[in-house]
Amino acid sequence: MRVRKAVIPAAGLGTRFLPATKALAKEMFPIIDKPTIQFIVEEAKKSGIEDILVVTGKGKRPIEDHFDSVPELEQNLKEKGKNDLLKLVQQTTDINLYFIRQSHPRGLGDAVLMAKDFVGNEPFVVMLGDDLMRDKVPLTKQLINRYDQTHASTLAVMRVPHDQVYKYGVIDPGTEVSQGLYDVKKFVEKPAVDKAPSDLAIIGRYLLTPEIFDMLETQKPGAGHEIQLTDAIDRLNKIQRVFAHEFKGERFDVGYKFGFLKTSIQFGLDHPEVKDDLKNYIKELAKTLK
To answer: Nucleotidyl transferase domain: from which residue to which, for each copy (predicted)?
Structure first.
């Protein structure tokens, strides 16, 4: 069965970015001129995804507004001949997006469970908004290609510094069945550094079979007293094979302040409107830091 649906959990409280997130969804924070969630949606589209469900919560209405049409704005840009800007605005409306609210945040696993009716009996992709990925082939498409080979759930993983493993779900890799594809023995959510089974961390892209919902419906709270998706995947792995695909492209973590700043600088250095000014500013700034 072809993978054509994606779920984007976006109901988190964004406490790492308080006080800004009291009134603004963190998924709407811009990297230069584009909200972070738009990068996720664009990755899905480039990967062949047709329908996207965004799981939102309190204070997340701006996400819906961003992907809605604004006739007055579009007409104004058209009348003023600002066709490039008009094209940018219209890019956010040519997408099959659906929204559902998670009234009480109970963890990532609970947010994914809310997509059960939307997904039905199909394989689907979960895409987390804190991770922006860059590669010649979008990471979501890489996972879909793996699924076409194995017809099994496949998670994206990436090697991280060993002293950072406690921040992630980590896999205990089994056999490398083909280059960069591992048959997983076990999944561990946020292990202690001295107990982590590997440095291969789950990085925010999951291709899952619909049987994951059976696991989530009976999953007990785990780390942080929340329903952890990693725990449910570990249980799924006991009844059907689950694989891990090692991502070799660029990953940008915008889920914490310094990561967001680094991402903004890196993307700014690639942005045609600001890259030259930003390079000059960094050179001048560097002189004052010596």
So the answer is: 5-257
Considering only 4-8, 231-235, 263-267, which range has the smallest mean pLDDT? Answer: 231-235
Strand pairing report for 242-246 and 124-127: unpaired
For residues 253 and 248, what is the distance between their CA atoms, to the nearest angstrom?
15
Q: In 3-state terms, what secondary structure has residue 99?
A: strand
pLDDT tens digits along 37-69: 999 999 999 999 999 999 988 777 888 888 776
Query: How far is it, in rounded angstroms, from Cα 281 to Cα 290?
Result: 15
Structure tokens at 128: 């987390």
User: Which residues, other chains included, contact 87 with Cβ-Cβ below 8 Å and sequence gap of 6+?
Assistant: none
Superfamily of domain 5-153+203-217+228-238+245-255: Spore Coat Polysaccharide Biosynthesis Protein SpsA; Chain A (3.90.550.10)
Closest to 272 measured CA to CA, from 8, 33, 97: 33
Structure-token pair, residue 41: 């949606």
pTM, to two decimals: 0.88
The region, left, alpha or beta by phi > 0 then psi within -120 to 50, assigned to residue 288 is alpha
Name the H helices within the chain: 36-46, 61-66, 71-79, 83-90, 108-113, 116-119, 139-150, 212-217, 229-236, 257-268, 275-289
User: In terms of DSSP bridges, do strands 153-159 and 242-246 run parallel, antiparallel, or are they unpaired?
Assistant: parallel
What's the CA gap between 206 and 61, in Å, rounded?
25
- Domain ranges across the chain: 5-153+203-217+228-238+245-255, 256-290
